[in-house]
Amino acid sequence: MSARPDTGPDFIEALARGLDVIRSFRPLRPVMPLSEVAAVTGLARPTARRILLTLVELGYARQDEAGFALTPKVLELGVAYVRSMGLWDVARPHMERLGARTNESCSIAQLDGSDIVYVARVAVPKIVTLSVQIGTRFPALPTSLGKVQLAALPPAELEAVLAQPSRSGLTPRWQPDAAERDAVLREVRARGWALTDEQLAPGIRSVAAPLRDGDGRVVAALNVNCHAAETSLERMVDHHLPLLLQAAGDISADFARLGSVPHVDVRPGVA
């Protein structure tokens, strides 16, 4: 195999060839003789042989009479990547796509007592009445992000959470009594998403959906928010909501996959 074009002076060809060998194993050819590995990768047989024997010595491949095959240790390479990512790094591509498709800002928040705290945000440059950034907190109940998370709590836990004083410093416009609050949360629970219309502050309109882990627990919420003077409720429900639900489902699936990755210590010399 000749040197690859468009590579810099620091490019390590031997490492690239090793990765080519690992990628050559596919579902239809999990075990291959040396000749086939060389043919698939375009490597000379002596080069392919040295790479395969190195992988065997490191525990990433095995050799038997049928040829060479990868071992489960190869999974460590993927696990290292997944473990290096934060939970919100996993969500960010979905949020960026959602923001582009709605032309609105979107955020993820988690419950903290009776407040929500923003933990991820993709903002679209627009004039808004409230400034939001990572770490911003608002009372949970008058927000769509808060409603979908509060609706998932058992009754006793809900009362305990809402009994805690807010630390946001903001007095919301909507302050329902217990009966109105429970009716709203029942509706949110039944339909699986929440809509707020200037309940937190004038001009703020948003729709939110829950984010779940692999066990189905609500761990956070994702919303799309807009200015009430620019975006109608019909637009929120008819256009933004389906896109939001799709993004929330995709993020939840990624959360579940991240949580299902077994813990593997990839430090050298650690079994």
From TrEMBL:
Pfam families the record matches: HTH_IclR, IclR_C
One of the GO biological process terms: negative regulation of DNA-templated transcription
Protein name in UniProt: Transcriptional regulator, IclR family
Molecular functions per Gene Ontology: DNA binding; DNA-binding transcription factor activity
Superkingdom, taxonomy of origin: Bacteria
Alphabetical list of InterPro entries matching this protein: GAF-like_dom_sf, HTH_MetabolicPath_Reg, Tscrpt_reg_IclR_C, Tscrpt_reg_IclR_N, WH-like_DNA-bd_sf, WH_DNA-bd_sf
UniProt keyword terms in alphabetical order: DNA-binding, Transcription, Transcription regulation
Domain HTH iclR-type per the UniProt entry, residue ranges: 12-72
Sequence ranges assigned to domain IclR-ED in this UniProt record: 73-257
Organism name: Lentzea fradiae
